[in-house]
Amino acid sequence: MSIYKKRTSKKNVDVNSYNSIQNKIATLKNFMNNSTDIRERRFKVGGKDVDIAIVFIDNLVDGYMVQDHIIKPIMSNSFEWPTNSDYASILETIKDYMLYGDIVDEVYTLDEMSKGILEGKTLLLIEGSSKALLINTQSLPKRSIEEPQTEPAVKGPNEGFIESLKDNLALIRKRLKNPNLYVEIIHMGKQTNNKAALIYIKGTVNNKIATEVRSKLNSVKDYDIVSSEQLMDLMCPKPFSIFPLIQWTERPDKAVSCLLEGKVGVIYDNSRGMLIAPVTLSNLMQSPDDYYENLFIGTAITTIRYLSLLISIFLPAIYIAVTSFHPGMLPTTLLLSITGARVGVPMHAFFEALFMAITLEILQEAGIRLPKVVGQTVSIVGGLVIGQSVVEAGIISPIMVIIISVTAISSFAIPNYSLSLSTRVLRIIFMILAAILGAFGISLGVLYLLGYMCSLRSFGIGFMEPITPYRFKDWKDSIFVAPQFFLKNRPEYLHSSYETKRKGNSKNGK
């Protein structure tokens, strides 16, 4: 603890109080624990007997930029230095006339210098000067822009966010050339020293939502996190909610659409994807493909998606309740068929469903963790082999294999992965209720679930909007998929500052 206090107390030390270059560099290196990848180079100003040094981290800078944009211009003798120039004026001359870097900042303290170096910048020190310069020479490793992995679309753009805040912001501005697009950079983490960008359109967003998101982001900025998913968990209005109350997307086109509606986005550096708030159930059930088809096809696909959501949650529970408590509800032919298929099966329908559900989850998890080359093969072949084997062994009835298979396929139709995970938990809960109380248990569970969903709020917006409270005008962009010329108004439930998406005035940048 004493060492930590000693180091933190030096954060605001002015390194330039140590006049000699050697002492400045030694103090800075000591502050950064004498890491071996810190590089330095000393030289003299062209035509002047003044010592200069540059300090950088080897793997974070572009060596050609350091050589061509910093060292060569300074060491060149072609520049006419002002007569009787002191150290301060020499540094100002270097900053204003000689450096080719796109961003040059003046810094004074150890903390500012170390943060700049760790971001891939080059620190320039001059003997006798009271300040130093940080020149942008970043060359950070990153992957190229690729197709979204978790949100594929048949139509539309195939660009996805990557692990670079700068590139992700460029993807947003590429699609949204609006002067009112506001970006606020917030530094995150005491040790990670990462960045998060708060994004929204001024004059469009509900100021209460923007203020609440900013406040939540500032309240967790001291946490050391490494991904946007961890940030989403910290920012969640109800951490123990079974449903996601913040949406995550890796599609820039979807992110821009949400910003145009009046929502707020958060991009975390070194993590792909963008967080969007607030979010409703209808938002989680939407896919970019919905807006690339006509009214009838888009609405039909959306309806099938909602039907798939219900099937993935309730189908196994309904089967357990009907076969165990209410067989009289089935037609006689179907009842005889199910009864005949269950002859010789040693387990109760609940344990059948539970065994198959757990087996399915294991196969899905194995398919995700295995390399892509074999992951899908293992999931498909494993499901076929296990399903056929348990039926032939008489452990599971054939009808149960069909029930669980339809349930699994229905869950795959849910476009949001986090919501899909929520349905897995709800499925088990309703199976337990059905095994204990039958249809009455399912009814109680449905009533509680509806009440719980209506009570959820995402940054002041109800999770069940616009279904309840009833807002039929917003159904055209949630339950139905209306033609584009009907979507000129923003959703009413967001209470946006400027309600019209299109045909707006130039003052608001529409």
From TrEMBL:
<feature type="transmembrane region" description="Helical">
    <location>
        <begin position="345"/>
        <end position="363"/>
    </location>
</feature>
<dbReference type="GO" id="GO:0009847">
    <property type="term" value="P:spore germination"/>
</dbReference>
<feature type="transmembrane region" description="Helical">
    <location>
        <begin position="426"/>
        <end position="450"/>
    </location>
</feature>
<feature type="transmembrane region" description="Helical">
    <location>
        <begin position="306"/>
        <end position="325"/>
    </location>
</feature>
<keyword id="KW-0472">Membrane</keyword>
<keyword id="KW-0812">Transmembrane</keyword>
<keyword id="KW-1133">Transmembrane helix</keyword>
<dbReference type="Pfam" id="PF03323">
    <property type="entry name" value="GerA"/>
</dbReference>
<comment type="similarity">
    <text>Belongs to the GerABKA family.</text>
</comment>
<dbReference type="GO" id="GO:0016020">
    <property type="term" value="C:membrane"/>
</dbReference>
<dbReference type="InterPro" id="IPR050768">
    <property type="entry name" value="UPF0353/GerABKA_families"/>
</dbReference>
<feature type="transmembrane region" description="Helical">
    <location>
        <begin position="395"/>
        <end position="414"/>
    </location>
</feature>
<feature type="transmembrane region" description="Helical">
    <location>
        <begin position="370"/>
        <end position="389"/>
    </location>
</feature>
<protein>
    <submittedName>
        <fullName>Spore germination protein</fullName>
    </submittedName>
</protein>
<dbReference type="InterPro" id="IPR004995">
    <property type="entry name" value="Spore_Ger"/>
</dbReference>
